UniProtKB/TrEMBL annotation:
It is found in: Cell membrane; Endomembrane system. This is Uncharacterized protein. It is a single-pass membrane protein. The lineage of its organism: Eukaryota, Viridiplantae, Streptophyta, Embryophyta, Tracheophyta. Its main location: membrane. Pfam families: LRR_1. The keyword Translocase does not apply. Keywords: Cell membrane, Leucine-rich repeat, Membrane, Repeat, Signal, Transmembrane, Transmembrane helix. It comes from Quercus rubra (Northern red oak). PANTHER family: RECEPTOR-LIKE PROTEIN 14, RECEPTOR-LIKE PROTEIN 8-RELATED.
């Protein structure tokens, strides 16, 4: 490859190359684009060889294992249009002149490295072609300043990502240069300790905005969207801030193209607007940990047919949510910690995760849950479900039926091969411990407390080799405690209290 002196583009992205950048790279004197994204390359950048690439315009080293500092001579590559060094281990101070001289820069991604010190956005003041700035971080050793010294942007960004950064500490001011931006399509300034009021002007000034992520800041006051309709916004996350009040009645008409909406961990209150039915493209909705009340609008469960994830937990919703028009295509459904009533739907849901705990639901466990290979986690605890546990129910990873009104025997035909957590506390279940439970080699937690189980603990209990938690208190078990319990090498918690055991205590206790 060293003989390819006329080579202009070298694209080796998304392979499994290892080792360092070879020395002959410096012989590619005509190279304009070096693209090594997503390999397993490592080591420091070869200074002499990299500095020889004087015509280089695009350098993509993202998603490798490079380390060390960036060669200072890169500042001379003034025709640089693209720099992506994300997801590496580059360290040290970001050279101020390194960025300032690249006035042709259009795209820069410095995410997930080990840089430290101070980085000032004023370095971008004379970069009229700049369209994309991305800086996601998982360390707080780099301070990003956007205000001092004073500067005016010559660019119009399309993408700005400054997530989990030490941004404008200690003032927490939102970057002022954003007031001058009118072509933004993606803004992610999440986890950056920003404060003040909700920046409605970002939406008013950028009519092409498709993604806005303000998650985990300290914005306060009322959450209010622009009054005009049919914005292009597809993705909105303003979760975990200090916003409050009620949502606009016409929210569904303002942002009808929305696919993702996260309003969780706020102080929102009142009813959720029925215009949510206009979110015909919605795929995920998270309203958890608020003070919403009233019934869930029927328009949600009838019209949002693309919805895949619905989280309404920890609110004050009430009424029957499972109407005949309920969305059947959901994958994740969390309704826990509300005041929902009624029964589970008769028609099969395709959920993988179902949490209806801590409500006022009643009725029997529906037949569609039996031998349902789609479901992985089911939590129906703290409700008023009654009747017997049906055969074939527990093919799941986790089943929590605690604190209901279930009765009868545990059926011997239970399928527990894949179960890791089985919680049955606080029901009216009777009978002995069935062999189906003892055949569950993956079981890690078994909670049968506060029922009316009886009989001996079978000697075959040692088959549960992965068991970490065994809770049998508050039943009518009797006889001797089998020594086979001593062979459960992974056990960490065991509670056999409030039963009728007799004889000697096993040597291992």
């Amino acid at each position: 490859m060293a003989n390819f002196s006329s080579l202009k583009i070298l694209d080796l992205c998304e392979n499994s190359f290892t080792g360092s950048i070879p020395p002959y790279i410096g012989a590619l004197s005509s190279l304009k684009a070096l693209l090594l994204y997503s390999n397993q390359l490592n080591g420091t950048l070869p200074i002499r060889e990299m500095c020889a690439l004087k015509k280089l315009e695009e350098l993509d080293l993202g998603c490798n294992n490079f380390e060390g500092i960036l060669p200072p001579c890169l500042t001379n590559l003034t025709s640089r249009r693209l720099l992506d060094i994300s997801y590496n281990r580059f360290s040290g101070n970001m050279s101020l002149s390194l960025v300032a001289n690249w006035t042709s820069l259009e795209y820069i991604d410095l995410s997930y490295n080990l840089f430290e010190g101070l980085f000032s956005f004023s370095l971008f003041a004379n970069h009229p072609k700049l369209k994309v700035i991305q800086f996601l971080s998982d360390n707080n050793k780099l301070d990003i300043k956007t205000e001092n010294p004073s500067w005016d942007p010559s660019f119009q960004l399309k993408v700005l990502v400054l997530s989990n950064c030490s941004l404008n500490i200690p003032t927490g001011n939102i970057p002022k240069f954003l007031f001058d931006q009118h072509e933004l399509e993606v803004v992610n300034i999440s986890h950056s300790k920003l404060n003040r009021s909700f920046p409605i002007w970002l939406l008013e000034n950028n009519t092409r905005l498709q993604l806005l992520n303000l998650q985990s800041n300290s914005f306060a006051g009322q959450f209010h969207l622009p009054s005009y309709r049919s914005m292009d916004l597809r993705w909105l996350d303003v979760s975990n801030n200090n916003l409050d009040g009620q949502l606009q009645e016409n929210i569904g008409k303002i942002i009808p193209k929305l696919e993702y909406l996260n309003l969780s961990r706020y102080y929102f209150e009142g009813n959720f607007p029925s215009s949510i039915g206009d979110f015909s493209h919605l795929e995920k909705l998270d309203l958890s940990f608020n003070n919403f009340s009233g019934e869930v609008p029927t328009e949600l469960v009838a019209n949002c047919t693309r919805l895949d994830i619905l989280w309404l937990s920890n609110n004050n919703f009430h009424g029957e949510i499972f109407s005949k028009n309920f969305i059947l295509s959901l994958t994740f459904l969390k309704l826990n910690n509300n005041y929902f009533t009624g029964i589970l739907p008769v028609v099969r849901l395709t959920v993988q995760y179902l949490d209806i705990s801590n409500n006022h639901m009643s009725g029997i466990i529906p037949i569609w849950m039996v031998n349902n290979s789609d479901i992985e986690i089911v939590d129906l605890s703290n409700n008023f479900f009654e009747g017997e546990i049906p055969c074939g129910l527990v093919t799941f990873d986790t089943l929590d039926l605690s604190h209901n009104l279930l009765s009868g025997l545990l059926p011997s035909c239970l399928n527990l091969e894949n179960v890791r957590h089985l919680l049955l506390r606080g029901n009216n279940l009777t009978g002995s411990l069935p062999k189906a439970v003892l055949n569950s080699s993956l079981l890690e937690m078994l909670d049968m407390r506060d029922n009316s189980f009886s009989g001996n603990i079978p000697k075959e209990i040692d088959r549960l080799s992965n068991l970490k938690v065994l809770l049998l208190s508050g039943n009518q078990f009797s006889g001797m405690i089998p020594k086979q319990l001593c062979w459960l090498n992974n056990i960490g918690i065991m509670d056999l209290s409030r039963n009728f055991f007799s004889g000697t205590i096993p040597y291992c206790f």
